[in-house]
Amino acid sequence: MLRWHRRLIAARWRQPKPPGRPPIGDELTALIVRLARENRTWGVVRIQGELRRLGHRVAASTIRKILRASGIPPSTRRDDT
User: Fold this and answer.
1) Where are the domains of the chain?
2) pLDDT per residue over 6-17, tens digit each?
3) What spatial distance separates the first Cα and last Cα of the chain, rounded to whole Å?
4) 31-57: b or e for each residue (b if 16 or more CB lie within 10 Å)?
5) Matching InterPro entries, A to Z (predicted)?
6) Which of the two residues, 3 and 52, has the higher pLDDT score?
7) Res 2: pLDDT
8) Predicted confidence band at 79 (pLDDT cuts at 50, 70, 90)?
9) What does the alpha-carbon distance between residue 9 and residue 12 come to, in Å, rounded to a whole number?
């Protein structure tokens, strides 16, 4: 019984982990940044909605990370500048 359990546990650690989500492409990243720069009043959710209309499914948190990496502030702060 113990030998069976040891083999079961050892087999669990040998299996490779499945790959995660594929990264967002450079073209889609450029589109997100362009939408944010051209439409200063649009927030992350609005950009997400427009991308969905164009056939791209991107999470709001991913859009937020892309905008933060590009140095674009949230929409509430973009209005003033």
Assistant:
1) 20-78
2) 888 777 767 677
3) 70
4) bbbebbeeeeebbbeebbeebeeeeee
5) Homeodomain-like_sf (IPR009057)
6) 52
7) 86
8) low
9) 5
Quick one: which of 38, 30, 42, 40 has its CA closest to 66? Answer: 30
CB contact set of 63 (below 8 Å; sequence gap of 6+): 32, 44, 47, 48, 51
Task: For residue 72, give the DSSP letter.
Answer: P
Tokens of 26: 């450079």
Phi first, then psi: give them for residue 11, nearest 5 degrees. -65, -35
Token duo for residue 78: 């973009």
The alpha helices in 1-81, defined as continuous H runs, are 2-14, 26-38, 44-53, 60-69, 75-78
Q: How many residues does the chain have?
A: 81
